[in-house]
Specification:
The structure is a single chain. It contains twelve helices and eight strands. The protein is of the alpha/beta class and 297 residues long. β4, α4 (103-131) and β5 form a beta-alpha-beta unit. It has helices at 16-27, 39-51, 66-80, 103-131, 142-146, 152-172, 197-202, 211-216, 252-258, 260-263, 277-285, 290-293, and strands at residues 7-10, 31-36, 55-60, 85-88, 134-139, 177-184, 225-229, 232-236. Helix content is 44%, strand content 15%. α1 runs parallel beside α2 (39-51). The protein has an eight-stranded mixed beta sheet, with helices on both faces.
Amino acid sequence: MSLNGRVAIVTGAGGGLGRAHALFLARQGAQVVVNDLGIDAAGRVAAEIVAAGGEAVAFAASVSDEAAVAAMVEQIMDRWGRVDVLVNNAGILRDKSFAKMTLDDFRLVVDVHLMGAVVCSKAVWEIMRAQRHGRIVMTTSSSGLYGNFGQANYGAAKMALVGLMQTLAIEGEKHDIRVNCLAPTAATQMTEGVLSAEGLSLLDPALVSPGLLALVGEDAPTRAILCAGAGHFATANVTLSQGRYIGVGRDAGEQLVSHWSDVADRTGEIVPAYGFTQAEHELASAGIGAGVAAVAR
């Protein structure tokens, strides 16, 4: 079993996709911490794992509660002495069109999805740095990557997780902390009423979870966005076009408008290795050498 001896936390694992993740990781040999808001739901999943011959504990905590998450991690360290994998899966929906959405509902969704992932990742970060091994998975969404009507709050939080992943992957690289995103399509309580009955039947959450093996194993990539659903897997990327040098004249705005098709042409687009690639690209286009452009970093 490829994750034998590894300790994995799965948040929001009392049902749906999180439950499927927890069961899958346990089958791969991981010792699993089943986190959920309610101890009953988390306990049932942990009991499933134990009944199947695995090792698991349940812990009830809101991912946005720093003290509760810290207590959870402390108990894990007392029991197993390490944390190898964190799957930030917990989430909620408060869908409405932006015109009808309250700011409270916007903040709540961002708090659970984004800040919940921040709180949990921060709680294990120093542990992973010290043991020089860690695998963190953020749960993004096609709603964040590409947008979806009625999900401005959810989409904003999910795209923010991509930004969090990009930076944590860079900062964690020298400590062998690899950070990736999973964009699942699965039939859960969160998708009821969104997909057709036929579509829901094909989107078993268990068909997404195998993607975790690629994201948390010994040979895992870092900074990958894995899209998974119905047994299909693909990767998404944030790219930068080659663009066009417009110049600094007073008519730069007009020039941009007239050459928009060139600026947006995706031929030869790249996936930047870090944020300052954009500045280097822009300065190089203006005729400034790579050595000078590197100062922008």
